[in-house]
Structures are given as C-alpha cells and as structure tokens.
Amino acid sequence: MNWRRPTLSLSFAVLLLSVSGTASAHVRYVVDSAADVKDALGFLLDVVADPFNAALLGGGALAVVAALVAYLRFRPAERDFDVLRETLRGYVDLVPWMLRLSIGLPLVGAGFAGYFFSPIVHAEARVLQVGIGFLLLFGLATRVVALVGLLVYVSGLLAAPALVLASEYVGGFLALVLLGGGRPSADQMLQRVADAEGTLYGRLDPVHGAASWLNARTEPYDDYAPTLVRLALGFNFFYLGFTQKLFAPGPALAVVEKYDLTAVVPVDPGLWVVGAGLTEMAVGFALFVGLFTRATAATAFTMLTLTLFGLADDPVLAHVTLFGMVSMLFITGPGPLAVDDWLRERASVDTPRSETDGETYSGRTTN
C-alpha cells in the first residue's frame, strides 16, 4: 500500500458518509427483485476485512465522533444556535399543519396510485386513504381522523407485515392525536365560531363541545408530540438500515448497480451498501435516543434529498412523510426523554444559559 492510501481513505470516508444517503432509500421501492446474499454476516465481514474499506469506515466514524466531541468541548457559535432556536420557536404553532400536509398528501397519493401506505403493499383502499388524507389536509376532525388512520395502518400491518417499512406513520398519527389540527385548519375556524358568543353555529353544532373536551384531555401531553415522532423516525431509519442493507444486502447491491453509484464515489459496491446501512442505523439511533436531534434531523433531510436526486424513479410521495417529520424535529427539537436534555443540563452547570435556550415544545393553538 503506498502513502496515498491512508490519506485517500480519510477523504473518501467523509465523502462516503456524506453521500451514502443516496443508497439509503427504501430499496424495495426501486428494485423489483434481486438475488439476496445468502450469508449476510459473511458479506459484512468480507467488506470490513479489506484494509481500505476498514480505513474508510473507521476514518469516517472517527471524524464524526471527533466533531461531536469538539463541539461539546468548545461549543463554537453558541450564540448563533441560541438565535436559531429562538427563531424556530416562532414556527412551532405551524407544526400541526406541517404534520397534516406530510401525512395527508402521501395518503391521497397512495389512494390514487393503488397502494396501501407503502408502494410495496397494493390494496384497493382508494376511498379510505383519500378520505383520511383529505380530512387531514383540511384539518377537519383531525384527532379523530388521525386515530382512525392509526387503526387502519395497524390493521394493515397485521395483515401485511411489510408495512413496517412505513412505520413513521405511527409517530405522525399519534402526534396529531395530541396536537389536533393547529392552524390553519377547519377545526380552528369552526372552534372559533362555536366559541364566539351569540353565534348560530355555536348554538346548533353539538361537536364543538366534544372537541373542547378532547382538547383539554390531550393538552397536558403536547410536549410529547416530538418524542413520539422522534421514536418512530428513529426506529424506521434503524430498521431500514439493518434489514434492507446489512441483513439483506442483495437488493441494496442491485440498487448500487442499477444507478451506477460507484461512479459517484469509486469504492467497492459492498462498501456502498455497508456504509449506507451503518449511516442509516446511526441516524436512527441518534433520533431514537434524542442525541443532537436537530443536527441529526438535518442529516436525515440531506440523506432523503440525495436519495431523490440520485434515484430517479424513487417514488417521491412515499418519502414526503419522512421529509415532514424530520423537518418537524428540526423546528421543535427532541421533546422530553432525550439525551439532549441531559447534555443541556450538564452544559448549564458549566456555562449559564440564556433564557431563550429552552427546548420545551407546545404546538397547541386555540382551536
């Protein structure tokens, strides 16, 4: 091995980790079938046994860890991040609307396209999915519709376990059950009219009273909406990285060959698959535990974007929910029960924090 090899290893490691999202799509969405590798563990060991591959993977991991440790130690541009967090806090009342769009649009598209939540599960459920999707887009009876959507998804999952590929819907539906329609929504408009004194609608409509009751029951748990989204996304990314890359590398290798991804980064196809799988699993783990949540959400958004540009026939609608949910986490932060909370507490002991640095989230609006 000549002297250039280690230098190239570190350079390629950073590059590979930054673009490995291109191979991190739902691979079964873009390849009909592919002969799987019989011995997945043997495949993984063969890839990492190559010194060059090991240097790339190890160098990339070390670079990421070093960057995180350096940030925690020196905290550069801390004032910039405080301002960013304060700015994002001004968007939280729009989070329910963002969630409704990111779930409603894919459901309408799925209904008209003839698949059930995920493009690999085909079912004649056009009216059901389009109905749920449009009601979410309008923001009409949002909590009830989200609960119905969750029950429909779970029922479908029991009949077709492959729907676990679309498990992000669970977090999205549960978050909408907590938050309601937000604004702008039909729920908010009708509630305002119903609550106003002397309105005919307020005297005739029996629904707004039940809506107010449900609103009061869910309000104490608003802060957990980002937590639910984070857990669902973390599971989804980790599951996809493990099951569609490391555990079953055959279809992922077919994706690398189909789109000539080795021309983008000239490395072994096996390294493409392993690198993409490990990156996706790392992103999933970080989201699940709430570690550097906003940065991880931005990384996930970049991976999804590269996927859409890199895989020309990847179904865009199937990823809209993921786009919307990672965007939500970028705005809200991790919510309760996150490692970020512990890191923030540790930082507050060493350095007094500004009053604008809190991460408490509430997407509640007066409906």
Automatic annotation (TrEMBL):
Membrane topology of this protein: Multi-pass membrane protein
Region (Disordered) residue spans: 348-367
Pfam families xref list: DoxX (PF07681)
Any single Gene Ontology cellular-component annotation: plasma membrane
Compartment(s): Cell membrane
Entry keyword set: Cell membrane, Membrane, Transmembrane, Transmembrane helix
Annotated transmembrane regions: 54-74, 94-118, 130-153, 160-180, 270-288
Keyword Coiled coil: no
InterPro entries for the chain: DoxX, DoxX-like_oxidoreductase
Protein name per the record: DoxX family protein
Annotated organism of origin: Halorussus aquaticus
